[in-house]
């Protein structure tokens, strides 16, 4: 009878050990799932940040393109129409004195931005910009 009780206790101890092993394995699996989920969330956050940066760059390029177009419009249309007035407004040439240089800088900047945008797969793309 004592032997039977000892056997039952051994079986009970084996069951407890087996249950503890299962719990430890489940805990490890849960931890791995949490790590995988955290890594996926981090990757998604990086992707969203990259998309926001690309959208900001596209907006910058489009804004510069519009700015240059408006400067050209100002020079061609407004300046030439003001010159046709008799007498031309005083200081007209002073008002438009540096517009050609500004358009040149804007044009070169836009060209560089367009060139850099072509290579946006380059890891140093943002540093280049």
From TrEMBL:
Q: Which InterPro entries match?
A: DBL_dom_sf (IPR035899), DH_dom (IPR000219), Dynamin-Rho_GEF (IPR051492)
* Disordered: annotated segments: 1-47
**Compositionally biased, Basic and acidic residues: which spans?**
1-17
Taxonomic superkingdom: Eukaryota
Q: Looking at the Swiss-Prot or TrEMBL record, what is one Pfam family this protein matches?
A: RhoGEF
* Coiled-coil region: none
Query: What SUPFAM superfamilies does the record point to?
Result: DBL homology domain (DH-domain) (SSF48065)
Where is there biased composition of kind Acidic residues?
18-32
Q: Where is the signal peptide?
A: none
- Any idea where the DH domain is? 52-129
Q: What is this protein called?
A: DH domain-containing protein
Organism of provenance: Cirrhinus molitorella (mud carp)
Taxonomy of the source species: Eukaryota, Metazoa, Chordata, Craniata, Vertebrata
């Amino acid at each position: 009878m004592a032997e039977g009780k000892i056997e039952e206790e051994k079986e009970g101890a084996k069951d407890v050990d087996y249950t503890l092993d299962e719990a430890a394995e489940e805990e490890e699996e849960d931890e791995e799932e949490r790590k995988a989920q955290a890594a996926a969330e981090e990757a998604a956050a990086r992707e969203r940040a990259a998309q926001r940066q690309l959208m900001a760059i596209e907006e910058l390029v489009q804004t510069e393109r519009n700015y240059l177009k408006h400067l050209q419009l100002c020079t061609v249309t407004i300046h030439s129409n003001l010159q046709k007035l008799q007498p031309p407004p005083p200081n007209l040439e002073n008002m438009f004195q540096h517009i050609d240089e500004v358009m040149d800088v804007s044009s070169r900047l836009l060209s560089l931005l367009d060139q850099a945008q072509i290579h946006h797969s380059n890891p140093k793309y943002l540093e280049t910009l």
